Structure formats: C-alpha cells, structure tokens
Amino acid sequence: APIDIDVNIPAVSTNNILLLLCTTDSASDPISSPPSGWTKIAEQDNAETYGATVVAYWKRASSGSTATTETWSSFFSTSEAYYIWVGAYSGCVTSGSPIDSYGQNQVGYGSPWSVSLATQSADTMVSTIAGSTHGSVTYTWADGTELIDTAYPTDSATVSINEKLEATSGSKTRTATPSLTTGFSGISVAL
What we know:
The structure is a single chain. By secondary structure, the protein is mainly β. Helix content is 0%, strand content 58%. The chain is globular and about 40 Å long. Strand 11 and strand 12 (157-166) form a beta hairpin. It has a five-stranded antiparallel sheet, with no helix packed on it. The termini are far apart. The protein has no helices and 14 strands.
C-alpha cells in the first residue's frame, strides 16, 4: 500500500524559498503530488545497481511561521526508506519561479560523480543532492559546503548535500568523489 511521509519544515520568514531534496534507498519513484504550494523541479531515477531516486521541490513561504511537520499523503507506492532535507533561503526573487536553472545526472557505476548546470544569473545558490543505495559511501566534494553526509536507515543507503554561492553566471559543475566506486543519482538546483 502507498505510504505517507513526514516532512520537517524549518522556521521561515515571508518570501523565503523552501527547497526540498529527497533520496531513496532504491529506485522507487514518488507516485503522488506534494501538498499545495510545492512545485517539482526535477526527478532523477537510476535503476542501476546502487541506483537511488532523487527528487527536488520548491515552495515560497507566504508568511512567517515556526518549524512544523507536513504529511505528504501516499507519496511512495510501497514501503520505502528515504531521506528528506528542507532548507529555507532568503534573498531570492519574491514573485515567479526562483529556479534559475537545474541539472541532473546518474551513474550506474563510476567515480567521481558530477552534476552540471548553466546558471543564468550571478549570485545564485547552487544546492546539490547526491544519493547512493550503497550504505558505506562517504563523499568528498571538490568545492562548496557539505551540509549532510550520512548513511540511512541502518546503513543501507547514503546521501550528501552540498551548497555553493556562485558569484558569476555560466556553466557550473558540482563534483563529488565517493569513498567507494559505485552508482549515484544527483540533482543540482540554482536559486
């Protein structure tokens, strides 16, 4: 039966952009729409060995609020282990889409891993998620700030999230070297 997921939302101010990055411990696709206000940016599936599914969504905060939890109903088709991270960003455009660009990639087996995108504007925040269903991988990013590098649940999969403020526009590549040569799925989003 489809399962619900709980999404922890940080405290926000009006017009903050919420960026949700999710990865799974198998190549399971989300099957339903998120709650009202959320917009899907991209989904990267990977049916190869150690291939995770990663997905990204955004939402603009219509008012300030304290941290809360949302339940996303029937989000996966079957019981699924997943990792969700939500960040709140200020300084983005206050109307229309805040998504400057995005890129996605998957590797069945290889190293290093990379996701490329072409930013249209200067001063974009590029947030990247890399997910693997190999439970013993750690990540070393070429640049930027690593926010998350962890195994979940009980070491059956791994996730890393990296962000970097890009001062100039143009082609950008986020590169991570895994501690083991294996597969991954990744999405980079420029706000």
